[in-house]
Amino acid sequence: MRKGFIEIENGINAGSIAKSVYVRKRLSLDGSVKRATAFMSALGIYRPFIDGNLIDSQPFLPGRTAYDKRVQYQEFDLTSYLQKGSEHIIGAEIANGWYRKGTLPKNRRSKKPLVFFCRIVIEYTSGKTAEIYADESFKVSIFKCDSVEYGKDGKISKMVFIRQREVDVTK
Predict the structure, then answer these.
(1) Which of 89, 108, 149, 169 maximizes the CB count within 10 A of its CB?
(2) What local confidence, expressed as pLDDT, does residue 49 receive?
(3) Distance between CA atoms of 123 and 120, rounded to whole angstroms?
(4) Distance between CA atoms of 159 and 6, rounded to whole angstroms?
């Protein structure tokens, strides 16, 4: 696996498919932050969080894409989130989406593991730069989608998740 990518099914019983997961990592800062940028994507759909706050309210990131050809990524400005305190939690909820379900024809749906990509670049006021990548130090909690609520327009308005268990992705 390339730098910054983690396969979510690592540590889950062979052959099992996670419905959705929450990945997270504690960030420790080395001083005052001048600028911080996160680059994220997933094979599956995801919602990014920092310290429990949703970073972007756009649903179903990275957007519908031809996963077998290319994967879009998003860039998020984290500077304002990292101005207070020296400890933060970065995370994402990841689900199958169009990667393993959805509107793709059955022959184009993947049976491969969900994959999360994260690269964070932090520039400190001291001039020092740090880069943090998704790796096996990210903690993973497996969820199941308990219920889906639809709005009057027929679109999904709310998804309710229940945590099933936490797994160690290093095994």
Answers:
(1) 169
(2) 92
(3) 10
(4) 24
